[in-house]
Amino acid sequence: MSDIAQAFAAAFGLIVSRDPGLLEIVLLSLRVSLTAVTLASLVGLPLGAAVALFRFPGRRAVAVLLSALMGLPPVVVGLIVYLLLSRSGPFGVLGLLFTPLAMIVAQTVLIAPIVAALARQVVEDLWAEYGEQLRSLGATPGSAIWTLLWDGRFSLVTTVLAGFGRASAEVGAVMIVGGNIDHVTRVMTTAIALETSKGDLPLALGLGLILIALSLLINGAAFVLRDSTRGRA
Amino acid sequence: MTATGTILPLQLDGLAFEAAGKRLIDGISLTLGVGPRTVILGPNGAGKSLLLRLCHGLVQPTAGAVRWHGPGAVGNGRRQAMVFQHPVMLRRSAAANIDYALRLKGIPRTLRRARVREVLDDTGLTPLAHRPARTLSIGEQQRLALARAWAAAPEVLFLDEPTANLDPAATRAIEEVIGAIDLTGTKIVMTTHDLGQARRLADEIVFLHRGRLLEQRPTAEFFAKPATSEAAAFIAGKLLW
Q: Which one of A196, B140, B196, B221 is CB 3.0 to 4.6 Å from A204, fit for a cystine?
């Protein structure tokens, strides 16, 4: 019990003193995960909407595949991206392995299916309500994609948050393609894993607390934003 | 009304629609021409709304055909519009809803701005132009739906029970807009189960019962001397099923 109390006290100490090492790790984590969620949304939102709106052979299969890919194990994604980016891999010449960019790529691959699968559901439900009206106005599936993504923006915030939650919490993919190199690719989750195995519980716990706090903060901000704008649109 | 000529008359030829083994529209043949305001009348469940959707092209018939015969009908994009009983408002301002409809018709931005202002003005919605459409009252939303459908100057406007959920004041506002649209030369085809509304608005009655066309006649004639016992019973206010 006192171990835990000590760890908490030390953790708060690190946070309050704004330890530069800690700050560096937190900022890198945010940069990687926010970039990944942005890229994944740019791909995933239109892709999910397209699967919801276009009628093509194999559409059900694509929808099932997207849903299945939501459960991609991070270590497997990490391994695949590792193979692609390693010296002998097809993108080896780019020299991206063990850089933050590699971590961004891995997390984007990991969460794009999540964003796409959830967006597909949101847009499909909206289409049930909007379909006849939009067709009557002369919309095609192609133009309806953008209409429905915009009209579903409040629900889609949750979709994007789900992607961000997954990205910021995963450790397997960034560990493999980033390598957890101090001052280069060390992010919160990999640092927590490392410090725990080294026995430096205060630092691990401090990072854990920050990770949870950031997640609460971002989700809270999104909810406030949503509630304050929903009434006006 | 345009250089390419009218798309009317609209001819329905043995039109039928079946779902789950039930004939919801049963062999309807009729012609709707330029001019008179047509009201499709009948009890709830007669197939009025479905008939409009078939005419508008939202639903494909299981038998028969919908044909636009006018000289302008060849390659006609969509010179027809529809107002639904429960119109869907986009999550944007009233003005932006109208602008959206015009954009889908490929009307350039510079022309859209003036047209949006004009149509808001004609429907009395100018003070509400910048309000989010979904915060408007049901009556205002319905008027906006009319404005949105009317904006691109369709040649035929289908209206599906546009006042079914409205109070008398809102109903009157809607009927006035419908009258104004009629005066611009747009063909009105609307459904209602409200006899008073049919008397007020219709030049021509199309009477439906259980998916079948029973009568198509001028309004005065229909109400004075209904040709079928079903129509007579409906006019007398009896329940029809």
A: A196
Mutate to test the interface with A, among B56, B90, B102 (most CBs of A within 10 A): B90
Range scoring the smallest mean pLDDT among A90-104, B20-34, B62-76, B137-151: B62-76
Distance from CA of B56 to the nearest CA of A (A): 8
Q: B107 touching A, CB under 8 A?
A: no
- Overall fold of domain A2-230: MetI-like fold (1.10.3720)
Instruction: Kindly identify which residue of chain A lies nearest to residue B98, measuring between CA atoms.
Output: A137
Q: Is the pLDDT of residue B72 over 80?
A: no
* DSSP per-residue string spanning A29-47: HHHHHHHHHHHHHHHHHHH
Q: Is B179 helix (H, G, I), strand (E, B) or coil?
A: helix
- Give the 3-state secondary structure of residue A155: helix
CB contact under 8 A, B87 and A139: no
Show me where the domains of chain A are located: 2-230
Determine whether the interchain pair A133/B105 forms a contact, defined as Cβ–Cβ distance below 8 Å.
no
Q: Considering only CB atoms, which chain A residues are within 8 Å of B100?
A: 137, 147
Distance separating alpha carbons of residues B97 and B150, to the nearest angstrom: 12
CATH of domain B1-7+35-71+155-236: 3.40.50.300
Q: Report the residue of chain A nearest B152, measured CA to CA.
A: A137
Residues A73 and A170 sit within 8 Å (Cβ to Cβ):
no
- Give the separation between CA B67 and CA B195, rounded to whole angstroms: 29
Interval B152-171: pLDDT, tens: 999 999 999 999 889 999 99
**Domain spans of chain B, in order of start:** 1-7+35-71+155-236, 88-153
